[in-house]
Specification:
heterodimer, A: mainly alpha, Helix Hairpins, 5 helices, 71% helix, B: 0% strand
Chain lengths: 130, 81
């Protein structure tokens, strides 16, 4: 039992990422307002990005920038630096997330102009009446 | 990585996320989502991902909040949940 508790506490950041991901999933599924659903989608995306960035983090390492990068060639110890590969991948994911957000909000504005509401149930009743 | 700071800001991130989806006003939800993005940017600075951090500060906390506020301005602030 103490080993189980220490395992859970030592990996606290992963538990919090899963909590954030479930908050986003709940908002996407259960919320009635379209803008709230879009907020949930963004929370879900940032939770996944946070998970990937935390994989690259190391204890006792410095940020991945070379001091004296120009000049003569020298040997670098990769263990002293945080792994920059997840950072580069997640930089792309952030840009894609903003593009998705813009398209989703533009669609929400079009839906509002058509039905004059952002609530999902009111939109569905108006669609059934037609 | 300083774990006390990490844990404190992760707690604030969860609080801001729950607040953004429960508040009964869409403009408030947009501003709370901006706060959430800014906390996320601090978290990435703590983890040493400085490039991701300043991209998030400009794109996530800046442009996303502006998009949300513009969308709320063109539609309505009213929400039922």
């Amino acid at each position: 039992m103490p080993e189980l508790i220490s395992t859970i506490v030592a990996k606290y950041n992963y538990w919090i990422y899963i909590t954030l991901m479930m908050i986003g999933l709940y908002a996407m599924i259960a919320k009635n307002n379209l803008v709230k659903k879009i907020v949930g989608m963004s929370i879900f995306q940032t939770a996944i990005i946070l998970f990937y960035v935390s994989i690259g983090a190391k204890r006792g390492a410095t940020i991945p920038i070379l001091e004296h990068g120009h000049g003569s060639s020298h040997i670098t110890h990769a263990v002293d630096y945080i792994n920059p590969l997840p950072h580069v991948l997640m930089l792309t994911a952030i840009v894609v997330a903003v593009a998705t957000l813009g398209v989703a909000l533009a669609l929400a504005v079009k839906v509002y102009n058509q039905y004059n509401t952002l609530e999902e149930d009111e939109i569905l009743t108006q669609m059934r009446e037609k | 990585m300083i774990w006390q700071l990490d844990l404190a800001i992760l707690t604030l991130v969860v609080i801001a996320g729950i607040g953004a989806i429960t508040v009964k006003d869409l403009l408030g939800a947009a501003i709370l989502f901006g706060a959430y993005s800014f906390m996320m940017c601090l978290l990435w600075s703590i983890m040493g991902a400085v490039d991701v951090s300043f991209t998030e500060a400009s794109v996530g906390a800046g442009a996303s909040t502006v998009f949300f506020v513009a969308a709320v301005f063109r539609t309505t602030r009213r929400t039922k949940d």
